[in-house]
Amino acid sequence: MRNQLRPLLAAALAMLFPGLGHLVLRRWGRALLWHLTIVAGGVALFAFYDVSMEGSIGAPAEAAEAAASLPTDIAVSIVLLYGLSAIDAYVVGRADAAARDRADATAEAIRRRAASADDGDESESDGARESRSPVAAVTGSDEGPTDVECPHCGKETDADLDFCHWCTEPLPWADEE
């Protein structure tokens, strides 16, 4: 549930203050980039249109008057930048949540596979273990592990290869295929 609310929170905070939504997502570079883009874009637009904001720092009524007197081009451009920042924060948050969900699912699948391999090794006889390929003997399944021990040099190597990348000797299961 937390993963689903985080993108919405990031988008809302990005609308409140430029870059804040990305800070919540721990995307420091993007937060700085969006903040600088919106602030520099606003300053550049004010300089380009030669807008004077005198007296806008005083009372709230004066600030509201100054905001109402902004040229439409400047106001639309700044609102558009804020909107793009919020959309980016939402999309990045959704991508992070999806990646986190995939990682959790992968970790759970690995835990289940390890638990079933431990149960299978206890019930398997010695003769059945020896008849399987060396790849299956290492993991307890016929899928093949990512790393196996080389019988020649003893170092771990990739099981998908037909040779040990450390000693370049062919692996015993390379001839079986």
What descriptors fit this protein?
2 domains, mainly alpha, two-stranded antiparallel sheet
Question: What is this entry, summarized?
Answer:
The protein is mostly helical and 177 residues long. It has helices at 2-16, 20-24, 28-49, 60-68, 72-123, 126-131, 134-139; strands at 147-149, 156-158. Strands 1-2 form a two-stranded antiparallel sheet.
If you had to describe this structure to a student in words, what would you say it looks like?
The chain has a two-stranded antiparallel sheet with strand order 1-2. Helix 1 packs antiparallel against helix 5 (72-123) and helix 3 (28-49) runs antiparallel to helix 5 (72-123). The protein is built from seven helices and two strands, in the order H-H-H-H-H-H-H-E-E. It folds into two domains: 2-123, no CATH class; 134-174, no CATH class. 65% of the residues lie in helices and 3% in strands. The longest helix is centred in the middle third of the chain and has 52 residues, at 72-123. With 177 residues, the chain is mainly alpha-helical.
